[in-house]
Amino acid sequence: MGVLDAKLHWDSTTLQVTFEDWDLRKILKAVLPSDLDFSSYSQAGHIVHVNLRDNLLPYKTIIGQILLEKVGKCRTVVNKIDGITSEYRNFELDLLAGEDNYVTETIEGGIRYQLDFSKKQSNYIKPQSFNSITEAIRDCIPGLLEFSSKPRT
pTM for the complete prediction? Predict the structure, then answer.
């Protein structure tokens, strides 16, 4: 038998790929038109916050559902509506998916914060800023924080 006379045998197999097998970016890329790109989100506790551009608004429901399913600990997905009009720099939220619950907890710099995301200011402090703020406070009043941060028995 020569080289050109080789026999090949192919077996077929079925591979099932489910939603759980895809990562967030690949799912969004698969469902959105190729000329649109979802950029990013932020998370505070169980709330995922997006700033969707106008061209993504027709897809806000599917984007919200995907984020709800794929982002860990997420129970609420919101989009900022329009600009900031209030004196206190609050903004209106559009619930895209999940619970209508804007009170959440987050831990930053070792301190637990509870906040109402619907009433927070638009310039939410970045986690690294919490660390430096926390350290500055601890430097100013070291004894007081030592007693106040211990659980009471």
Answer: 0.71
